[in-house]
Design brief:
two-stranded antiparallel sheet; 18 helices
Length: 521
């Protein structure tokens, strides 16, 4: 009887993860149906031909569907390769017998590589072509996967450096290609929000699938060396935790092939009106401009960012939110484990991860519903405010169920954040420096991540720091929203004055026309 009482107490003390998962799954299904065309068929309402209040043609919607399908085919293969590797990087290093300190150095090297090399590689992508650098991403990340076969510290270090470069490309060049392709295909930028929402939703599905596939692959065989100990072949490993990286390698090959065959090339070019003369001559009749140096993209992106407050604030805001997201990834496990009364009982990590991803999907669907009614800048203020409250509760709560539910609220904010920020950056960041500026945005982000890795903060201290970062992001986003709205109103006034002046000139021409005709007669 005492044993039964203990089991009952243990079950009662454990958060009801299964129930919470089913509830979040139900919410996600409802929001997904509400944000899809199926809702129109169920309710009999129709918004066909409308996008954000604008009338669009069927031809334009068809072009958007074609572009989105080609983009998602490549992008989701890239994110699949990333999700396959993520859960097993630490486990692989640990299985190779490296110490906690050595593993920490490897992780720091990866984020440091992303910060250093990513700062200028985006500018090179703008100049040399975004599709080329997507293919280069596939090759670099594939090489990183190959290094995981070697139980050698310095080969693994090389893999982490390559992985850092690939991560910078993943979070900059893909978005830059998509935004430019919208312009090239003459698709209204109002469709950008739909594109980013679909990408975020698909990414969450891919994350769940990748987790299941990687778990099955890692447990299917035992990891073993292919040769004798103390030989080169003896440090080459196959099976076990290496299997997810081999599957990621296949996904990356497919990603590069699809990019080469399905995507057209585009560059960080200005509009036609701003472009230099096609014959290469300068305005002053001088000689043709020399080819830009590899570092000029970084320098130009930095100068543009520092001179434009909207771009600078947008970068700081994105770094604060994504930095808090990385801190959350590092800290949610020890936070939930610390709140368990029965320390010997393990957390259902797979179920918790799936619940997080379902909430991300729900957030993406909620964005699709709200974006037609509320401007993205205002939505961002609400998202950051809710995230701030969620982090505050997690930092102070002693109840695992309450903390877990607030973590799920933050994951819904993550699902809304990426399409919101993708749309905002698509409007604010200039096209000719887009990939370079996106990578500049990741420099303060990597500082935040490195700070989290190199300091010994407790989970509650880390979440309190995240709460403060969200407070700063909320204030900055509110100011940015006011600036954007004011500039939009000012632009509207200028446009109206221009239209009035043009109308006056046309009226004057019409009044002079009879006199001219009389003189001709």
């Amino acid at each position: 009887q005492a044993s039964n009482n203990n089991n009952t107490t243990s079950t009662r003390n454990m958060a009801p993860y299964n129930t919470i998962f089913l509830v979040t799954l139900g919410i996600n299904v409802i929001l997904t149906i509400r944000s899809s065309g199926l809702w129109e068929k169920i309710t009999g309402s129709s918004s066909a031909g409308n996008n954000g209040g604008q009338i669009v043609s069927e031809e334009e919607k068809s072009r958007h569907r074609s572009l989105l399908a080609r983009y998602l085919c490549v992008y989701l293969l890239a994110t699949l390769s990333d999700w396959l590797q993520g859960p097993y990087v630490y486990a692989l290093y640990d299985a190779y017998g490296f110490s906690q300190h050595d593993i920490a150095v490897l992780f720091v090297a990866g984020f440091g590589s992303s910060m250093v090399f990513g700062s200028f590689i985006g500018g090179m992508a703008d100049m040399c072509g975004r599709r080329k650098f997507v293919i280069l991403f596939s090759a670099i990340y594939a090489a990183s996967c190959i290094t995981k076969h070697f139980n050698d510290y310095w080969i693994l270090m090389l893999g982490r450096l390559l992985g850092g470069v690939a991560t910078s490309l993943l979070f900059s060049v893909f978005e830059a290609w998509l935004i430019r392709s919208h312009t090239d295909a003459k698709i209204d930028k109002a469709f950008l929000s739909s594109s980013f929402s679909s990408a975020a939703y698909g990414n969450s599905i891919i994350a769940i699938v990748a987790g299941l596939v990687a778990n099955k692959a890692a447990s299917s065989t035992e990891m073993a060396a292919i040769g004798e100990k103390d030989t080169f072949s003896g440090m080459v490993m196959l099976g076990g935790f290496v299997n997810p990286f081999d599957i990621a390698l296949v996904a990356l090959v497919a990603c590069g092939f699809c990019a080469a065959t399905l995507w057209e090339e585009n560059y960080g070019e200005t509009s036609v009106d701003d472009a230099p003369p096609s014959d290469g001559s300068s305005d002053d009749g001088g000689s043709a401009k020399e080819d830009p140096k590899w570092y000029e993209g970084l320098n130009n992106a930095y100068m543009t960012t520092m001179r434009n407050r909207d771009i600078l604030w947008c970068g700081i805001i994105s770094s604060l939110f994504e930095g808090s997201m990385y801190v959350f990834v590092f800290m949610w496990t020890p936070a939930l484990q610390g709140l368990m009364e029965d320390k010997t009982e393990g957390l259902p990590f797979g179920l918790i991860f799936s619940t997080f991803m379902v909430c991300c999907m729900a957030g993406s669907s909620l964005f699709s519903i709200l974006v037609s009614k509320i401007k993205g800048e205002a939505l961002a203020v609400g998202v950051f405010s809710v995230a701030m409250v969620a982090f505050g509760v997690v930092a102070t709560s002693t109840l695992d169920t309450l903390s877990f539910c607030c973590m799920l609220v933050f994951e819904m904010c993550v699902g809304m954040y990426f399409p919101i920020m993708g749309t905002m950056k698509g409007v604010i960041v200039p096209e000719d420096k887009r990939a370079a500026i996106y990578n500049l945005f990741r420099i303060p982000l990597n500082f935040i991540v490195l700070f989290s890795l190199l300091t010994d903060l407790k989970p509650e201290q880390s979440f309190a720091l995240c709460c403060i970062m969200m407070l700063v992001a909320t204030i900055m986003q509110f100011q940015l929203m006011k600036r954007r709205l004011n500039s939009g109103e000012l632009q509207g006034i200028i446009t109206k004055k221009q239209q009035n002046q043009q109308q006056k000139e046309e009226d004057a021409d019409e009044s002079e026309k009879p006199l001219i005709e009389k003189e001709e007669v």
